[in-house]
Design goal:
Two copies of one chain form a homodimer.
Chain A lengths: L12 E13 L3 E8 L2 E8 L4 H9 L5 E10 L14 E12 L16 H6 L1 H4 L3 H23 L3 E2 L17 E3 L7 E3 L5 H9 L4 E9 L11 E10 L3 H20 L9 E3 H8 L13 E2 L1 H4 L5 H8 L3 E7 L8 H12 L7 E5 L5 E3 L7 H10 L7 E7 L1 H18 L10 E5 L4 E4 L4 E4 L26 E6 L2 E8 L4 H11 L3 H14 L7 E7 H9 L29 H7 L1 E3 L5
Parallel strand pairs in A: 3-5, 6-9, 11-17
Antiparallel strand pairs in A: 1-2, 1-4, 2-3, 4-5, 7-8, 9-10, 10-22, 12-13, 13-16, 14-15, 14-16, 17-20, 18-19, 20-21, 21-22
Helix pairs in contact in A: 4-6, 4-15, 10-12
Amino acid sequence: MCAEITKEDLGKKVTLSGWVQRRRDLGGVIFIHLRDRSGIMQLVANSELNKEVFETAENIRNEYVLKVSGEVVLRDEENFNPNIETGELELKLDTMEVLDSANTPPIYIDESDNANEATRLEYRFLDLRKDKIKNNLITRAKTCSVVRNFLDSEGFLEIETPFLGKPTPEGARDFLVPSRIRKGKFFGLPQSPQLFKQILMVSGMDRYYQIVKCFRDEDLRQDRQPEFTQIDLEMSFVDVDDVIDVNERLVKKVFKEIIDYDIEAPIMRMEFSEAMDRFGSDKPDTRFGMELFDLSDLLKDCKFNVFAGPIKNGGSVRAINAKGLADFFSRRDIDALVDYVKTYGAKGLAWIAVNEDGSIKSQITKFLSEEETKGILDRAKAENGDIVFIVADKNKVVYDSLGNLRLHIAKKAEIKMDEGFNFLWVTNFPMFEYDENEKRYKAMHHPFTAPMDEDLDKLESEPGEVRAKAYDLVVNGVEMGGGSIRIHSGEVQQKVFNVLGFSDEEAENKFGFLLKALKYGTPPHGGLAFGLDRMIMLLVDTENIRDVIAFPKTQNHTCLMSDAPSIVSEEQLEELGIEVVDEEE
Amino acid sequence: MCAEITKEDLGKKVTLSGWVQRRRDLGGVIFIHLRDRSGIMQLVANSELNKEVFETAENIRNEYVLKVSGEVVLRDEENFNPNIETGELELKLDTMEVLDSANTPPIYIDESDNANEATRLEYRFLDLRKDKIKNNLITRAKTCSVVRNFLDSEGFLEIETPFLGKPTPEGARDFLVPSRIRKGKFFGLPQSPQLFKQILMVSGMDRYYQIVKCFRDEDLRQDRQPEFTQIDLEMSFVDVDDVIDVNERLVKKVFKEIIDYDIEAPIMRMEFSEAMDRFGSDKPDTRFGMELFDLSDLLKDCKFNVFAGPIKNGGSVRAINAKGLADFFSRRDIDALVDYVKTYGAKGLAWIAVNEDGSIKSQITKFLSEEETKGILDRAKAENGDIVFIVADKNKVVYDSLGNLRLHIAKKAEIKMDEGFNFLWVTNFPMFEYDENEKRYKAMHHPFTAPMDEDLDKLESEPGEVRAKAYDLVVNGVEMGGGSIRIHSGEVQQKVFNVLGFSDEEAENKFGFLLKALKYGTPPHGGLAFGLDRMIMLLVDTENIRDVIAFPKTQNHTCLMSDAPSIVSEEQLEELGIEVVDEEE
């Protein structure tokens, strides 16, 4: 292939096939950059040396497909091109065959192309010719290969689970597939192989994995696609440390082999509660400070009810110190920050700036005692030039607001971050979240997540305090994977259903076949799933999930290249026993 | 694991986890067969040596999950069990922990189980505990690993193509997925990644593969599932021999590494026309003879219009000689054979038996001249005891009837076949089949299959004579894979559409995005897809596709374990803008 030719091949006759990246006619000599998957090779057609080839070369255009042969020669030194691998070589052409011509492409096949994304997605087959996305896909393929070889060597069996599954009533929205043979019934495309992989453990398969498409019919955010890929695995006869160990070795191997990056092992672990207290997030970006701190003890008796009120109602007052940024934010900027935290449910955002001269600027200090203000600034370790942002509310709102504000400010102010990747296991998640609307506990992961042994006795008395054997792998503030040990005891499972308020009938309806399986001898088991798309995004350093998927969809679930979804015939719908009753405009 | 323990471990203390396969209480001593994925280990609990363990052992039942530790010791010689790998060893127990109890399983976890398939599918998690299906899945995983490693080493890139695709108007019936965001529109689950893999070649990916689920909403036959798995690949800058070469090396590697079977390479090739003439099938089972032979030249002028008529109308009279089977078939058996060929469209089945004494028995010889009868028997090389079966009809009916009759008789009479695997490439398929109903040509593979270079000039004048660069890999009469070189020239593509009678608009509607892609520089390309399920069926020697799939569906598209498909809520349908108008009883 083009880029596989080296100086060792000088003087050799070679045959290459590829696309015309560029053609320069210098009058009597035509230089062509021929591109294949590997890279570029320069071809030379000289009218004096080979008239026939030269005449062919005169008529080719960009993106024509050629098959050429010739001799590998050294370029003149002034023509060396350090930007391409074969930059010191060129091919003196003997033959040139045009395998296919090409219309003028509507986008420029080069990294400098600035066509809008819609055009690029419509002409995805051309966009994929560019180095960046092509190399992303190569990285993706290599990563899958490394993952599979590692898991094979660790005794994991790759086992396929069904795509035409049972619709699940919990969790995100399913994509449904009407059954023609059993009219009126529907398959659900899997949101994950969760139940099936647990069934495989019940079946004695011991260790399972699969790199598998999963489906969620959600409204799309920047980093979501309706179909996405998981590295999904499950192990029997294990506890938390066993699952963490094998996955730590897996990611270490991937990052080393794919981008030659050494992950420090063992990877740091942080309890969920610490992650929330310090970073206001269960996926903290630990590459920089600006950590949250709690002011509740200082302010619980203060006269300013905006602070004291939430504390009395079980909430808290917490803050972050944006070091040295007192002057960075104008009043208008700060108003924007107030609006920003409101999107996370906060009623407001208090702030205290310490001017460079040590004086204090704030709209709230008038409501506080001097001691209280000093206490806040002491705890913030505030120095001249700092600005402290404070939120008082229910804990969830405080964490969400400040956790996100921290990231927002870091981005705005281009705060310096650690280089490389900060890996972190977040562990010991709560088993349950209390749903204020439904006035009941809900499972934070799913109802099969095992409680921590030491919290088992609180399952009935203080369910809100029970922690789960659940763990997420977080990298630079991105959740790359997560999982848990599952319940394998019928007794514990029943208690968890009681906390969730499920009747036997409900449990049976929702999870019938797994519950049935659990009755026939279940090994302790647990597992994890990585988001492959996110893993590749980290490896190739992009924030656009569409850069790592060959044929992605837009935010409204459309493939601009193939024009899916599309209208189908009445006959097809009739065969399925369904009718369209509501159509998009 | 259980079966990993060898005599080298004698005297060692080991810990094992698994399921109770069997428990024998000999009074004071309890023997337990502990089973894990690897196999069986015998445990011994002796009341005198360890009272606590013995008491635990007294209360366990089949399929309980245990964690045990103890010392590896040699069994008494009279207790050696040659049927299990660890048959000379046992574990003298120090500890035994019951990790989970188990209800009495509704099926027997042993190869001797004879529960009906419906019960086994309902309790699939128990059925999977049996050696046979478990080992099939292990073989399947190993096969995928061998395939991937081979294709990786050959420069193929694993690239994922979408599951939520555009419904395709040609071919088998699509499964449809209603879009919620674009109400009234539908995705189609892919019948194969055909168009996308061609697009990837247009994109310059050079070599692609994927082990991928495909979907066809057909009524199920014995060896079909609504979702099945393909090893799908495509290559650029290749012709037929290149594709055949790499795939030949692939299957050779798979059969060697998985079952230590040497495939003779190069694999024999046979033109489609020869396969039909000799075996009446494009997937001939070449492990035995009983080949078809043509009698048309002998009988074209005979007075028996049942023979002469079809020949005059462009059909033929062909026959097979069931050697030595004249006495094997009773008159009733022969009547059943007549009924059998009628299912393939034949109007009847003529026969001539040569008795052991050389006399002839037949109902048709009275309509033939002596010369004609002798001619038939000569051509059949008929000897005493043989019976010749004759079909006269349109060629398609003659081939179908005799091709299938040949297999049917071979099975009934248990004809001796070659041992092992007869691999065969069937090549040079016709481009087009004439559809008598629609009075037009249809593509035999798909409209992007390339014609053979030497037949190009017949594309417009004699389309029925044009052969395609298409090839199937047939093993013991089973089509294990197939593919073709694709058209990469717009001009040829247009001619093919003309033959098929597509208007520009139709072509655009049916294949729009591929046609568009083909305009921007397309490399010559081709590929192949293997049926993974069928490959595994051959490797593990089963005729039941459900034996090689972890969670298969029944003939009416139902998963008996999870009870998919199922009814969904009105709210879900409303969100999708559809309504059920026809329900199963």
